[in-house]
């Protein structure tokens, strides 16, 4: 069992939360009961995850995608109200960690995706250290796609010549297609992220650097699990990951 305030302060330091400029608040977003012994972890704070936490009588939920995004309608109506109502009614704390949980060198989404895929990180660069550079096994783009599909259980979209060699890699999980230019400038063979935009196909063709869209949810399912495991080890709390798969 751990006090909410202690958990919150510990994690703020561990993830270096105060160093990040982000699109949503990092940390305790909705306060519930003051002590935590059971935690449900998930990628996004959606209704299915909240209902699973209620069913498991969790004291807290920890996610990568929480609430209160910049430029989002702040009014608590409709489906948005329902999420908050369920949390308040059941006195459940909601913790959310966005960019700090992408960038963290140990439990971060980028580090954990590399661990899953057997990629070696050589540098963290770009905006707030979010672009990871490194190397993967020597293979073709098609083989990289197969490896991602095996591990993430989702077919990736590959933009590039299936037979081109890809070993020098850049990656950033989630909706990081905007970093493709930085990856091209870094001189890699392929860039892997979650989501894709229309212009990426032309950029891949014209730069010769392959672009891989491996799924936003799929690439961001490991960081929060690693953070939950860290909480378990640190505080003895019972943490369970609840998958709410998302095809995007
Ligand atoms: Zn994300």
Q: Can you give a write-up of this model?
A:
It is a single chain. The chain is built from ten helices and 13 strands. It is of the alpha/beta class and 248 residues long. The protein has two domains: 115 residues, Udp-n-acetylmuramoylalanyl-d-glutamate--2,6- Diaminopimelate Ligase, Chain: A, domain 1 (3-Layer(aba) Sandwich), CATH 3.40.1390.30; 111 residues, NIF3 (NGG1p interacting factor 3)-like (Udp-n-acetylmuramoylalanyl-d-glutamate--2,6- Diaminopimelate Ligase, Chain: A, domain 1), CATH 3.40.1390. It has a six-stranded mixed sheet. A five-stranded mixed sheet has the order 2-6-5-4-13, sandwiched between helices. It is elongated and about 55 Å long. The site of zinc ion has 6 residues, from strand 5. InterPro entries: DUF34/NIF3, DUF34/NIF3_sf.
